[in-house]
Amino acid sequence: MWQWLLVPFGYLSGSINSAIPLSRLLKLPDPRTEGSKNPGATNMLRLGGKKAAALTLTGDMLKSLLPMLIGQGLGIDPLLLAATGAAAFLGHLFPAFYGFQGGKGVATAWGVLTGFSWMVGLLLPLTWAVVAKLTRISSVSALVAASLAPIYVWLVTGIAVFAWTALAMTAIMIWSHRTNIQRLLRGEEGRIGR
């Protein structure tokens, strides 16, 4: 029963937003008040360049992957592993440490999905990179990768609770990108490198 403590641990780990301490460490503007006002890797790219973006992406991915790896190491069942991952993802969106105002969850979801399967963890950034190369639009790349995630999870793992968790995260990520979608429809969404 004590293994269920992984769920609150996942939430607290997910609540650590990498962009905020990194922006202080690198003497950058607060990503919650500058640029797109989203504390994520894309906004950190705008505010601080590739190094800041890479560190943010890595931190936000690892903070959700860590509880998943602990769960796997303990041999917990798929339902508890999925609950731990979902908690980490929700921690990023609604962080206890930052007034429950978080980011969009793309990198954090990647960590969760990598915790389900390393193969899925490799397919997602590959998908993002291919779409980014074709469109030069980060939000489109994220939305396409997120939309394919439940399919990848189901095809690779065959575990229904993992696929349903991936589907729920995808729905939330699409909702969190609603302003990006509106800008895309108006032809106003920024391109990578501009």
Radius of gyration equals: 16 Å
- Our estimate of the beta-strand percent is under 5%
Tell me the structural class: mainly alpha
Q: Which geometry do the CA atoms define?
A: globular
The stretches of 5 or more residues where confidence is low (pLDDT under 50) are none
Number of domains: 1
Distance between the termini: 51 Å
Helix content: over 70%
The number of strands is: 0
Order of helices and strands: HHHHHHHHHH
Q: Mind describing the biggest β-sheet?
A: none
Give the mean pLDDT: 91
Q: How many H/I helical runs?
A: 10
Describe the structure using short key phrases.
mainly alpha; 194 residues; globular
Architecture overview:
This protein has 194 residues and is mainly alpha-helical. It has one domain (2-186). It has helices spanning 6-14, 19-25, 41-48, 50-74, 78-93, 106-116, 118-135, 138-157, 160-176, 178-186. The protein is globular. The termini are far apart. 46% of the residues are buried.
TL;DR?
The protein is an all-alpha fold and 194 residues long. Helices cover 72% and strands 0% of the residues.
Write the layout of secondary structure elements.
Elements: H1 6-14, H2 19-25, H3 41-48, H4 50-74, H5 78-93, H6 106-116, H7 118-135, H8 138-157, H9 160-176, H10 178-186
Helix pairs in contact: 1-4, 1-5, 3-4, 4-5, 4-6, 5-6, 5-9, 6-7, 6-9, 7-8, 8-9
